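Project standup — Tuesday

K.O.: blocked on the structure for the chain from last sprint. Re-posting the sequence here as requested.
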Amino acid sequence: MGTQTVIITGGATGLGYAIAETFLHTGANVTLNGRTASKLETAAQKLQHPDRIHLVAGDITDSTFVPKLVDETVSRFGRVDVLVNNAGIFAVKPFLDYGIDELDQYLGYVRGTFALTQAVVNQMRNQGNGGAIINIGTILTFHSSQLSPSSAPIMAKAAITAMAKNLSFELANDKIRINTVAPGIVQTPLHDEIPQQTLNSFAKLHPLGRIGTPQDIADSVLYLANASWVTGVTLPVDGGVAAGGDGLNPLRQAA
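H.V.: unblocked you, prediction finished:
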């Protein structure tokens, strides 16, 4: 395989940044997308590969922006081989505390991911040699947790995960593979509001005895980008939580 070109949404920090760094280490070209241009510029400076990084600031929930992200990537690098649907938002709160406006914000990322995936699939079909799409989901779509009441964001992640499984059949003849990574608790900026001591205490809830790192997720994304006989998979990267029933539910464990 020649040099890959990869689009990563939500690429300025956390998982997106680690995924970008990992692909750059393989020699890939990377388009980094995020809502804030200054954060993207800071990330690009730290990544130190200006010849292989293209920055496209914008919000994927804006339907007028999505074509720009793909068009600019093709203009800069000539093709798209991998899409990483990483962008999203997340807030933990009880079900009755979510407002409908908040739900609409989460569903905006479902629409944006859908539209961007359509645009990339169209480009990959035009190229004629397949490609890979990896969604960043969550283990919470099929292992709910008493520690993390989050019905609205999980609803959005579940929709994207279901889309991937459906598309894996529809796109198979085009050799376009689509899979989902389902992380457990990972140290990212999404958890900045949680005291570090509390976050560290979650380690014991994972059979492997620690919370995840962005690199754990990046390694799994790189694998799925190149695993030519894998499609339609939701891959738990969660320290072993999915192997049991109650890893994230200490009250049930105690019972």
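K.O.: great, moving the ticket to review. The mean pLDDT is 90. Residues 184 and 251 are 18 Å apart (CA to CA).
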